[in-house]
Design goal:
Elements (H helix, E strand, L loop, with lengths): L2 H44 L8 H14 L6 H19 L3 E5 L5 H10 L4 E5 L2 H9 L5 E8 L3 E2 L1 H9 L3 E9 L3 E4 L10 E4 L1 H6 L1 H7 L5 E3 L3 H10 L3 E5 L1 H7 L2 E4 L9 E8 L9 E9 L5 H11 L4 E8 L7 E8 L5 H12 L1 E11 L4
Parallel strand pairs: 1-2, 1-3, 7-8, 7-9
Antiparallel strand pairs: 3-4, 3-11, 5-11, 6-9, 6-10, 12-14, 12-15, 13-14
Length: 366
Amino acid sequence: MEPDKQLDAIRERIDEIDTRLLELISERARCAREVAEVKLAASQSSDTPATFYRPEREAQVLRAIQDRNPGPLASDYIASIFREIMSSCLALENPLSVAYLGPEGTYSQAAALKHFGQSAILVGQPSIYEVFRQVEARECDYGVVPVENSTEGMVGQTLDSFLESSLQIIGEIELQVVHNLLGAASIHMHSVKLVLGHEQALAQCRQWLDSHLPEVPRETVASNGAAAMRAASETGVAAIAGDLAARLHELKPLANAIQDSSANTTRFFVLGRESVPSSGHDKTSLLVSARNRPGALLGLLRPFEENGISLTRIDSRPSKTEKWTYVFYIECQGHLADDIMLDVMGQIEEHSIMLKRLGSFPRAPI
């Protein structure tokens, strides 16, 4: 068969497949509407609010899709496609409002889009504290805040916010961070007079900046989105930010991928008001304050070792109630509802003066 005829035949098959896909997606959307109707009816009869977003259910679905993926598309790509389908279907049930560290163009916004999809209503906030407040005050359904970077460590403001908040961690997002040096259309590398960025972004690009722009001053701003906004309007200013900020503020890249580590990844927490049932692949986060005596930290950690529970993170923060006293952030595998975890929590309470359960949540599925 001649190439043109072969291509025509393949295109006909693609058209047929697209038609079937459309029918199946529409059928899934109709099922989502039926789910909403059932939940609303149950809510009215029991006088309890309907729960539309189920983090553990979404994580289970996305993992199952990746496990069954026959290729040739990579499992992460397939999961991202299904995430958007799920996001659109959930919007038919009940559109979600999500607070994130703004303004537009931040990595927090990119993380929120990765987790909730394009159909969520994203609301930028000026600070991490304000993200917490918006969710606590029920002005937004959920929140997304940065918690850890693979090269710069934990985000102290996020951990400190948990000390005063009743919110639960209900999910995590891992986002590969690619920093670009961005500027307005008229700027060139040799004409950059000031580089703006969030303090973590500046730290993550320190070696590149020292090598390529050693004499150019650097200024810390509240977010990379804020840096991009100023770069779009101020002469001689360049911003460290990502592709989303470049698109939103119509900036051009002066240099791409300037982060010092190619494996630069930031982890974000999803904040909610209610705890999440087990998904089967979960983590648990705690804040613990130990008595100030020899072996106190060992006493906190021993129950995990004795019960074979793997710790995925441990960090310390000043307690802010008394000098030289600390609160430990501990993250481990497992769910607070597991029998073994219930036993461990009881043992930890014996060695602590404060134990705050921040929540159990599904491990990032994509």
